[in-house]
Fold:
Amino acid sequence: MATIQLTKIVAPSLWGWLGDRTGQRVRLVRFGAITGSLFFAGVFLEPGFYGLLLVMLVFTFFWNAILPLYEVITLRVLGAHKDKYGKVRLWGSVGFIGAVALVGAMLEWLPIQYLPWLLLPVFAGIAVSAFLVPSERGERKIEAPKGSLKSIVTHPAVLTFFLMNFLLQVSHGAYYTFFSIHLEQHGYGKLSIGLLWSLGVIAEIVLFMVMHRLLRTLSVRQIVLGALVLTMIRWALIAELTSLVPVLVFAQLLHAVSYGVLHAVSVQYIQGYFGEHHHGQGQALYSGLTFGAGGALGAWLSGFLVDGYSTSAAFWGGSAAMVVAIVVTWRGLRPPPSG
Structure:
């Protein structure tokens, strides 16, 4: 399972570079969807530990290429209506809830060995849907960019942006790794845990529906700092007040802020700073450095805190990471160029 995070650090940068270099992002998405699905079929060979490790490495190398490229395609299609990004992105959250509900229900009466068979139609559907996205006629090799990628990445505001998101994902390490265990330790049953996870995603969906209004009324700096403060409070509430159901429900509703708000802002932030020529690589760096490296480090560090202290300590660690993120953001974050 760690290979998912490993290839998420490396693969998006390569595919983002190819997308920017060739301009053929839709074709790359199709290639990644088909090739990734074919390599996933290797699980049916029952190849043993090292064989399965190889299957996962190759499969996720292609699979992790799809989402960053799709983000770029989506924003290009939206054009001047980038504030409507949330209304498109919410369908990913709807799909997540649908998959959890449907596959979870089917596994109640099917052995877990059938899981790969349940996933194949999903992969096939993604591959087919990729062919429903038209390739733009003008989508050809882009002219030489104005300014190098290095000059963009080393810009103080961009460095602040990446560090902020890195720390944000470090803070999520305890949540994605130990939240269910934490709830079990406080007496919550499997149904309650599933509902609480779903509540967070539902809050995220609602947020994506109204995000365009938020962007019109508040500045990027105000939105980001407010979201970071609420995320810090969220981890503290989960750490100390888990047994109080209303408080825990409120903490899960804050998932709309800790993920939804910050992701929607970040995707547009990247487009503003990296522009047309480096957009794919910027999106890839965002995916790799934050969700990949930040998420992996957060999970690893939270494991030490759980092993040495408790699951509550891991969430306090996430809250501490957010304190650092707030200071970094307050000092260095600047709004992205418009357009």
